[in-house]
Amino acid sequence: MCVDDKPGNLAAALREWEAEVRKQLPQDPDVKNAAETLSGMPVKELYAPPDVSGDYAASLGFPGSYPFTRGIQQTMYRSRFWTMRQYAGFGSAEDTNKRFRYLLEQGQTGLSLAFDLPTQIGYDSDDPLALGEVGKVGVAIDSIRDMKILFDQIPLDQISTSMTINSPAAVLIAMYVVLAEQNGISLAKLRGTIQNDPLKEYIARGTYIFPVEPSLRLTSDILGYCARSLPQWNGISISGYHMREAGCTAAQELAFTLANAITYVETAGKAGLPVDEIGPRLSFFFSSHQDFFEEAAKFRAARRIWARLMKERFQAKNPRSWMLRYHVQTAGCSLTAQQPLLNILRTGYEALSAVLGGCQSLHTNSYDEALALPTEQAAQLALRTQQIIAHEIGVTETVDPLAGSYYVENLMDRIEAAAVTYIKKIDELGGMVKAIAAGYIQKEISNSAYAYQKSVETGRRITVGLNKYRIEEPPPTGLLRVGQDIEAVQALKLKKLRAERSSGAVAAALDKVKQVATSEANLMPAIIDAVRVEATVGEICTALREVFGEYSGANYY
Amino acid sequence: MEAKKVIRVLLAKPGLDGHDRGAKVIARALTEAGMEVIYTGLRQTPEMIVAAAEQEDVDVLMLSILSGAHNAIFPRVLEGLKNKGLDDILVLGGGIIPEADIAPLKAIGIREIFGPGTETGEIIAYVKANLSAQRRGR
Predict the structure, then answer these.
(1) Which residues of chain A make contact with B116, given a CB cutoff of 8 A?
(2) How many domains, in total, are found in chain B?
(3) Which ipTM did the prediction report?
(4) Strand A233-234 relative to strand A236-239: parallel, antiparallel, unpaired?
(5) How far is CA A231 from the centre of its chain?
(6) Between chains, do A246 and B21 touch, taking CB under 8 Å as contact?
(7) Over the stretch A429-465, which tens digit does the pLDDT of each residue have?
(8) Which residue range is the domain that position B125 belongs to?
(9) What band does B1 get if pLDDT is binned at 50, 70 and 90?
(10) Number of Cβ within a 10 Å radius of residue A427
(11) Does B34 touch chain A (CB under 8 A)?
(12) Do B24 and A370 count as a contact with CB atoms less than 8 A apart?
């Protein structure tokens, strides 16, 4: 057919094209297009100018300018790559220090600390509830002494460190600060991020300790402390990754993350922290999942939604408060235990969409991670994946190269609309705290997870190597195993610590923590003092448990 | 001819692991297949699991764990069940359990382990086929 460019005629021509195409029978039964994104958004055969609305200036704009759709900095990767920041940690501080130094030698540009579950849930390694868990999913950190070993030969003023820790976040920041002090490093030089995002723990991650209100207080205290004392530190990493891993869609990931962010900004505001005092140092953490264009569109939508939220809803005046800065991890749940080398490709494509989406920091999964924590070789390969994207394939030469794609722009608009609808619904429910208490968020996620499982089991969704192209495989070999003796090692360290430190000073410090916890004062100074006299993670969290109690929410699914 | 007995399943998350997507999906699938499912939620100690298994009079116990603590925790659950005379419960495991650990766990009484990529239908079929004769007849 003959097509001319006048919009009305083009729209009609497109409809005509679509009608003609849809009259045809499906070609190849083996192809089986889902006709929808991974998140269930309809995908047409073709996108063209009539599918994109809005003018460039208002909806996209230039990178580095509101609403930052095309990127938060003007030149993005042309001036500076995203931080290559590989999540790492296992066993003892010695083991993890070795892996950190290896990754830094291999070219990663930021640290990302994985702590074991006892540490994340505020238990010392010799706690009965730590049985079997010590050092398994991350490094065991019980006291400042472990932290010192962890950063051996890693100068705190020359590295940026991200710590994935939530309920005991205050304790870990305190350790980092005390370590800096001990090394004569000014706090103004410390760069990094602390996750400090309790709401998503209740929803999807599970390392909560305290009930909601005291957790929000702690989050706020940390934001306040960072705003005053750690000018280069991001006091929170508001996370969607885990909710996405729990099975939610792209639009839900955005909506639930940004709705959590709204709660944090509101909470900080009530605690006397104005939006522009914390705005520039809020950061975010998203997944990069398998649907290539959906993810890139999602990241761009995220920037635009957040910019508008901060400017319009919260009246933030500082342009840096409008900028969504985020870390990405490629989707762990997309990895298969079957034919694990295929995960290299999955991670590669996911990393590419994260870069095309304009992230500030990226972790790429190792191919063996459906089976175990990564071996050194697998971790190296994961890092090389990013380095190839950065150096070899040309995607970093220009900013936001996907802009103007009819499909990507159309999809971005639809994802934004869906996310905004969810945020509105959450507002109507009274905000995220109420939505979580009512189980609304958990059920939305669960429904999406179940729908996805059904789509795989009915063969509507193909997972190569799993429900198509399966092979007989020998069991995997050479996987990383964390030794069982780590518990004994940590127990000995704790015994030594308790014998050598001043138990009087520790007892007094813990009493002070409890005292401050019952007041409205910021807890950070008291926690820092406790860490300085070598109180442990478990002891400080126990003190807080005594005052705050423990979370007991219902199991919604 | 008596009515077909409803299979009662306790689905537990032992230890500190918070990854419950799989457990929740399976809980739903089992419910849709006509089973009665009690999902414990997170942070279950071996003692809590055994007590729940007894209290809920379940036929099947499913332990979901991805944190690597299975070798420490599973034996304690099995021991607890044995001490309560509950060893006719069909005990299954799932999550991230290395191949090398499977045989030893089976040797102590975990009847089957369902790793990543398992379809819910497979688990349902297994339960129906392997419910102990005693439990089936009740």
Answers:
(1) 336-337, 370
(2) 1
(3) 0.96
(4) unpaired
(5) 21
(6) yes
(7) 999 999 999 999 999 999 999 999 999 999 999 999 9
(8) 8-137
(9) very low
(10) 14
(11) no
(12) no
